Amino acid sequence: MTEAALPREDAPQDAPGDAAPKTMRVPRVPTSIRLLKSAGVRFGVIYAALFGISAAALAAFLWWSTAGLLERQTEAAIDQDSEALIDHFLEGGPTGAMAAIKDRVAGNIDDDALYLLVDPEYHFVEGNLNAWPAHMPLDEDWGELKLDRAGVPALMQVHYFELPGGYHMLVGRDIAVRAQLGRMMGGALLWAAVIAVVLGSIGAWAVRGLFRSTISDVSATALAVSAGDLSRRVRVAGAEDEFDLLAQAINDMLDRISRLMDGVRQVSNAIAHDLRTPITRARTRLEDAAIHASTDVELRAAVERAMADLDGIVGVFQALLRISEIEAGARRSAFAPVDLVAVLEDLTELYDVVAEEAGMTLLADIEPSLPAFGDRDMIQQAVANLIDNALKFSPIGGVIRLSARVEGEMIIVEVADQGPGIPEADRVRATERFFRGETARSTPGSGLGLSLVQAVAHLHGGEIGLFDAQPGLRAVLSLSVHHPIEPHLAHGSGLR
Questions:
Q1: What integer is the mean pLDDT of 155-166?
Q2: Lowest mean pLDDT among 12-16, 203-207, 254-258, 309-313
Q3: Would you say residue 489 has pLDDT above 80?
Q4: N or C terminus: fewer CB in 10 A for the chain?
Q5: Pairing state of beta strands 336-339 and 371-374?
């Protein structure tokens, strides 16, 4: 019996009569805890908090600009009146202050002002208040008094002064209107606070719902893709906001993943079909040599032919690995400014000799300035593949034309031949790995040349286009002048 099958001493044992072992229940997370961990709830709370702070700031400003303004105006009026009365007292003594107070009482039509002058023993001297208030604190300059004036209760804000000679003076204003306004403002702000809480809660719930609906769609798409449904995409609302940008970025990523997966399947199928023949041929030759070779020379010749077949297979795998490396962007870190004029002139000098030996002519039309940003070796190999294809399929005496120019933000490199060309139906698939049209079946090659050119073009922010040259084929390679951030779409490079 294995150790895993032995019962643990501390494990609960089933009762003899139990038909099946008891299952453990996973504890459920309380709803309140799940809500606190929800990003949508957090965003909603942040929205509600900002809304509440904004409402509180607005209420404070309204209070300061209404009730606060009245309070400041009242204090300013009392201060101005007090300073004038003190000046009269200092200039004319109690008699001067009494005359000034009489004038102010007589001119106070609204009866909202309070004046009282008393002697050192707090006996009445002058004013519209009969006696010194018993509850007026003498240790404070400012205060509020509740008085009964002519049978009407009044709330007064007063300023206390101690004058030379022991005299005392009170100057005040009726603030009943201000107090009433304050109560009205307080009630209004209280209701405004309630409304702000309600609206903030509704807004927080709406923000949570919007956030949750958007994220749930992304989450559902991710789960579907992880389950194998690569056709699922995130819904784009069409509002062109940040959520739409996120959805488009995710959809672009899924499109690229889908293309890569399709490429992997195509490569797997192509390897299974196209490489089976040379591997089988190499094995057959070795087996035949092992059975029938009678001399070392025959055996060595068979081994060398098998090695040549295997070298071809190794070359195919090396090309596949290089294409995969380019498509993964592993070489983009080595990008640098490069002058394509020098690259194309070197290729022209090299292939001019090859074309002459094959009985063909290579003509070059290269602009004097072709500044690009990329990998010199990869661009050189891509153009070399296009020239190789042109030489391979052109007839003896044919003319191959190489041209390069700058169009806007792109560098356009064209290679045109006078061969049989590629039928329009096959041009879409011509850049697929291992694809070989009917006209190319009899020529040597693995069908990876244009796939590598396409990978280099995409890595450099461009593309490869194939067009009819009447006769022949015109291959157009576009490369970005600047550092490519994202691969260009097929309709965005300006090929024609």
A1: 86
A2: 12-16
A3: no
A4: N
A5: antiparallel
Q: In order of start, what are the domains of the chain with their CATH numbers? A: 67-181 (3.30.450.20), 330-480 (3.30.565.10)
- Above pLDDT 70, what percent of the chain? 76
pTM above 0.90, yes or no: no
Instruction: Report pLDDT digits (tens) over 274-283.
Output: 667 778 878 8
pLDDT single digits (tens) 217-266: 888 888 888 888 888 888 887 777 777 888 888 888 888 888 777 767 76
